[in-house]
Design a protein that fits this description.
Layout (H helix, E strand, L loop, with lengths): L1 H6 L1 H14 L11 E5 L2 H13 L8 E4 L12 E6 L6 H12 L3 E6 L2 H9 L3 E4 L11 H14 L6 H31 L3 E7 L3 H15 L4 E5 L6 H4 L7 E7 L5 H14 L5 E6 L5 H22 L8 H10 L5
Parallel strand pairs: 1-2, 1-3, 3-4, 4-5, 6-7, 6-8, 8-9
Length: 331
Amino acid sequence: MMDQLIKKFPAQLREAIEIGEKAIIHPHTKPIHKVIMAGMGGSGIGGAYVSDVISDDCSVPYIVQSSYKLPSYTDENTLVIVSSYSGNTEETLAAMEQAILAKAKVVCIASGGKIIDKALVHKLDHLNLPKGWPSPRACLGFSMVGQLFVLHKMGLISHNIIDQVRVAADLLSFEQEDIMQKAEKLAGLLVKKTPVIYTTDRNESVAIRWRQQINENAKVLCWHHVIPEMNHNELVGWKSKHEDLAVIFLRNRDDLKRNQIRIDITKQIISQLAPTVIEIYSKGQSLTERMMYMTHLGDWVSWYLAQLNNVDASEIQVIDFLKTELEKSSI
């Protein structure tokens, strides 16, 4: 099932654009000085992507808040985007309540659940996502594009990034078979290894996505870090050989020149200590296209790794157990 959901990612991006184009987002009564995106896991990762792709376009801070509480500076000059595919995420619901009390401008993105119910009661703007997707982590396109449209319709970003998403969907459709072939080969290099993902700070959302997908789909522990920050701490931890690690560098050919030099030197150091060091370059003309390409590749890698590990990519029993135990206690 998960492979079919991954394959639909390009179509999901197009559908998300259609939903966004039709969405009605009313202006706020106060100027917007900052944006907070409240969301967790598969729904929250969309916020990390948005933060990366709008950094050169958005004139106000965009903060991703993945917790029960909103910052104390949430006020009537804040736009709070509440994102939860199911509409029932416990932490996101708690954050939504705080946003309403703070008189912030609240816009909800969900397929239903308590979040949409509350949005209707409080007459809040909301984007209704299609129901029936069994895994929130397979709904990245809906979450990310929905947030982009909220920002655009609030006058905080141009339509240019959304146009780039449309082009990215076409790129992924064209490259799908090649991406799958590359992913299968890459997965073969990760069997019985702990993957370590490195990329530049501008591309961190993609590294987070790779880590989360490998965690959830392949049931494998994984970590990531970003350059240049990693050069100031984690690099020192590479002191001895680690036969059980597989290091993956996610790169764009237009990465900042100084960061490209840093990656080359870092790769040279680590190659002496880890038997598996992989370098992957993205495709695409814009940052948005390159991020979507690398994301789709990573999703497929996680699925093929799940097959090689003989595990069900869709299964998340331990998370279901956690939620069941939490339901025994009130917030």
